[in-house]
Amino acid sequence: MKTLSQILFVLICLAPGVSVEAQTAESAAKEKKPPITAEEVLERNIAAIGGRPAIEKSTSYCLKATLEMHGRGALGTLEVCGKAPDKLLVLSTIDRVGVMKQGYDGKTGWSQDPYQGLRILEGAELEKLRLQAIFNAELTWRELFARVELTGMEKVGEKEAYVVRLTGKDGFSVTRYYDTATFLLLRADAVDEGPQGRLPVETRYSDYRDLDGVKVAHQWTQKMPMTEIVFKITEAKNNTPIDDARFAKPSNANP
Amino acid sequence: MMRLRCRLIHAVAALALISQVLLAQQPIAELRRQTFEIVWTTVKEKHFDPNLNGLDWEAVRRQYAPRVAAAGTDDEFYKLLNDMLRELKQSHFAVIPPSFYVDEEKGDGQSSRAEVGVTVQLIEGRPTITRVEQDSPAFFANFRPGFIVTHIDGESLDVLKQKIAARKERSVVQASLLLRSVRPRLRGEAGTTVTLRYLDENDAPHTVTLTRQRPDGQAIRFGDVPTPLARVETRRLTSEIGYLRFNLFLLPLLAQLRQAVRSFRDAPGIVLDLRGNCGGEVAVTTSLAGMFYTVRASLGTTRLRQGELYRPVFPQPEAYTGPLVILTDEGTFSAAETFAVAMQENGRAKIVGSSTIGGALPSAIEKLPTGARLQFAIGEYRTPKGIVLEGRGVQPDERVEVTRRALLAGRDPVIEKAVLVILEQQRQMKSSLKSRAQ
Fold first, then answer.
1. d(C-alpha B275, C-alpha B131), whole Å
2. Whether B277 contacts B332, CB under 8 Å
3. Are the Cβ atoms of A115 and B251 closer than 8 angstroms?
4. CB contact under 8 A, B364 and A226
């Protein structure tokens, strides 16, 4: 189950608007010249999901989701909470493994799972989580990414998509596919690299639903080598009061 | 009239049976075809090496497909599938028949597997009892380490040994195959019997029938592996050296293993006995390793078809920093081998005992249409220094040959050597500290 924690990390990193991974597995985008720039696609995406004013109304959120592994059925549940400007908590309960947590309180990043117990994150691992914790990150793509480029157009399933490669200041990059008709994010490809490994990840987003005027993908399908996991959001709330203590490092030691 | 009714009942029952068999035959043929397809395709599409190390997998298909289609029985069918997978010449490729999953289908979390309580290994070329479990049927029948088992239920182990020898594998693989071949012959349902012919300490022949008994141990569900029984043993050896033996690296045992290591905090050294340890979860190997490190370390990497997985070790609270010796033999397998070799390469532990076979490919298990499970390797393990362990095995720092004489004398020469290694390390540490102080 070690890979599951990686999957959860990746889930966060590929969330619309936030990406921190180095990209190597590029898709061959078609040689069509798109009638739009990468910057325009990203801004149209912000408008498509509800626009800056609607997105900025949210200062916290909590979502709950089910996890299913392809061919195996239910795997567990997931709870993610975020709070402006930079707090994050990811809590997953996995069948036959237990509870795995990861949190960032604006300063300290930590993880806790049945295998490694409680760990304080450092270095690149901490930086990765810090970036993931940036609230409403999709609005700050200009600060997060040093370069954005439209590499072409490609089909994602039946839908035509603009292919945008975003490269971070440290060289990390992610390739995103935006629906040419709706400008909603359909897919994101990246290579997740962390202490546990280096894995190509493809995430597909679907079942967009309105949440307080903002469209949120309620189903994410994540393909990694040897596994495919489907996340289905069962509950999502904006501006829910969250005590800061929830993001803080737990005090209990390892069993 | 009564006799007629009986005949009618028998006839109806027979007809029902025949119709069931006829009805079942067609679906079984189809299920087998689907199963063969999935097994062959999974290897083709998911093997970590897309070139399958140069093996012509299409030719393998042409060779096996007609034979699999003509298989008469389930046993024959599964044997052919496993023969096909053996063409890869790699560990962790196997089809596990549905009969191994009786406990899982039952769903009560219990294991119905029972044993007689002996471990049989090749000692000086003879199948010899190396371990008798306390309070087991064999224990109460006065079996002792050093007895030579000649027959199990009338089957000659010398003949079995010759069959294994005919495969012309490395000697450690032959020893492992014997260990693994004998084990299922001794296991069975609780209450069933097995007859052993053996030679005692004076080479006098005996024949004893033992009733299999459910052994002590924790039945653990672990993915789609047939429910294993986990055993943990802790004690103090000479000079208060800590001794920890366990047979699986599985999460439900982790807290107990950590606790055991912590309980040895005052010990001059720890012996981790991984003889017969079948492996388990990679994540548990790194977690346990964290109990022996105060700084971050690595237990190696796994190369996947795309990407790779690392095996980082994060130091755990109250880590033990004293001398560590790991015991290995031909029964030390899979994740247990990767743990041992990495700790050895990192200079954190000395290995005492005998070589392992090098079956070190991490694997996944998927259910097949017939109810069997396909185990297939998903990656290639490399040690911290980048060496492929598969087919190579762990080589001990101190090789110890176990003799029948030692076993009959109630000795364990491997543990004895481990104690000497720890005491020598202690002596060197003290000497080093003394010279620094001067």
1. 11
2. yes
3. yes
4. yes
With CB atoms and an 8 Å threshold, state whether A195 touches B312.
Answer: yes
Contact A170, A146 (CB under 8 A): no
Q: How far apart are the first and last CA of chain B?
A: 106
Residue B101 three-state SS? helix
Residues A200, B221: C-beta atoms closer than 8 Å: no
Using a CB-CB cut-off of 8 Å, the residues of chain A touching B254 are 114-115, 255
Please state, in angstroms and as integers, the Cα–Cα distance from residue A203 to each residue in A45, A69, A223, B15, following that order: 17, 14, 6, 55
Alpha-carbon dihedral sign for residues B164, B165, B168, B172:
positive
Between CA B335 and CA B341, with CA B338 as vertex, the angle to 5 degrees is 150
A124, A128, A133, A137 alpha-carbon torsion, rounded to 10°: 130
10 Å CB burial of residue B431 (0-12, 13-18, 19+) is: exposed
Interface residue B285 vs chain A (CB under 8 A): no
Contact B305 A225 (CB under 8 A): yes
Note whether A239 contacts B: Cβ–Cβ < 8 A.
Answer: no
- For the cut 70, the answer to whether the pLDDT of residue B110 exceeds it is no
Q: Which residue is it, tokens 């962390």? A: A194
Report the alpha-carbon distance of residue B88 to residue B374 in Å, rounded.
14
- Chain B, nearest residue to A111 by Cα: B314
Question: Are the beta carbons of B389 and B341 closer than 8 angstroms?
Answer: yes
Using the Cβ of B283 and the Cβ atoms of chain A, whether some distance falls under 8 Å is answered with: yes
Tokens of B83: 């023969």
The residue among B104, B281, B310 with the most chain A CBs within 10 A of its CB, best to mutate, is B310
Give me the helices (H) in B93-219, please.
102-106, 137-140, 157-165, 171-186
| pLDDT score of B367 | 87
Residue of B nearest to A121 (CA): B314
Is the CB of A33 inside 8 Å of chain B's CB atoms?
Answer: no
Other CB atoms within 10 Å distance of the CB of residue B133? 19
pTM of the model: 0.86
Q: How many CB atoms lie within 10 A of CB B430?
A: 10
Please write the tens of the pLDDT for every residue from A138-187. Answer: 899 999 999 999 999 999 999 999 999 999 887 889 999 999 999 999 99
Phi and psi for A222 in degrees, rounded to 5?
-115, 120
Question: pLDDT tens digit string along B7-45?
Answer: 433 443 444 444 444 444 457 888 999 999 999 999 999
CB contact under 8 A, A195 and B282: no
Beta strands per DSSP E along B212-362 = 218-219, 229-230, 232-236, 242-246, 270-273, 297-304, 308-313, 324-328, 350-353
The DSSP secondary structure of B180-209, one letter per residue, reads: HHHHHHH-EETT-EEEEEEE-TT--EEEEE
